Amino acid sequence: MAGVVGNQELRPVVFALRTLAVATCYYAAGRLGLLCRLTVEGAVFTPVYPSTGVALACLLVLGLGCWPGITLGAFFLVLSVGSPGPDAVGILVGQTAGPVCAYLTLRRVGFRTDLSRLRDGLALVFLGAFGAMLVSSTVGVVSLMLAGKLDPTHFWPTWLAWWVGDAMGVLIITPVLLVLFEARRLPSLSRWKEVLALVAVAAVLVPLATHSSLSALFLVYPLLIWAALRFRLAGSMLCALFASVTATVAATEGIGAFTRLSPVEVMVKLQLFNGSLALTALLLSAVITEQYHTRLSVEEACEELAEALEHLTAHDSPAGRAPPGAAEPPRERGTR
């Protein structure tokens, strides 16, 4: 009985600590996202809003009960940007409702956090990112417009920038956090050489592709394929995250592949690159992981079949039979 009472007393403390931890992670991710901002039609937005990815990852790992931490983190983030007005309530509702809708939708379709199936990757892309983030962007932009902080003529560009930023946060940040949560062991010592080679190539190739005036962003994709083939989701998503951050920095500074472009063109080019990068990394690694697990299942089935055949052969072996040519024991005659 004392143990039960002790557990009940600890529940509020655990809930408070969990809420504070989620709020801290949300706020820190939001501040990092605000370091790279673009201005389109007078509206300031982040090309990749990491807080939505952090929020969805926390919901998938910790459960629906961590939503107050998301709201609290969003409140402190709004407070750090400027004095909150009536629109802050709508923004908080939207930034909480978007990840919650994504969580509920993904759970309903049987989403697995290890992203070991192609259907999990497709669900995260189309339901978690593109679908659920419509809620956060619509509620947030409508709140700004009702508060008089947004000209109605700028509604659609602002809404599009908000939606894409939230969706990119889910596509790029959530898989990385899920990979870190699901990680059980580090690569073996024999594979560290290839890991270091991949890191070295990425450190040279990605900045060259994003900062070169030749617009050589396509050079990132062979690196992404290499990472997905050899290290599956962990390798491909970390490469995608590094490439996305590097490209976002180049876009905000207007250099490299984003030189001499209008703000709208910069936004479109950057988001098309980020979106195609995240989709390629996520779906390709999901297909490779699914095929890997299928091969393991086939190998296990073959081993079980071989063991069953050996067992049957052992039972049918002539060890307990009389050798050929030996006389059979006489049979008893029946009596009338």
UniProtKB/TrEMBL annotation:
Superkingdom of the organism of origin:
Bacteria
Task: Give the bilayer topology.
Answer: Multi-pass membrane protein
Q: Where is the MASE1 domain?
A: 20-291
Keyword Ribonucleoprotein on this protein? no
One term under GO cellular component = plasma membrane
Transmembrane portions of the chain: 15-34, 54-82, 88-106, 122-147, 159-183, 195-221
Region (Disordered) spans which residues?
313-336
Q: Where in the cell is it found?
A: Cell membrane
Broad class of the protein's primary localization: membrane
Any idea which UniProt keywords this protein has?
A: Cell membrane, Membrane, Transmembrane, Transmembrane helix
Annotated Pfam families: MASE1
Q: Know the name of this protein?
A: Membrane protein
- Organism annotation: Streptomyces fuscichromogenes
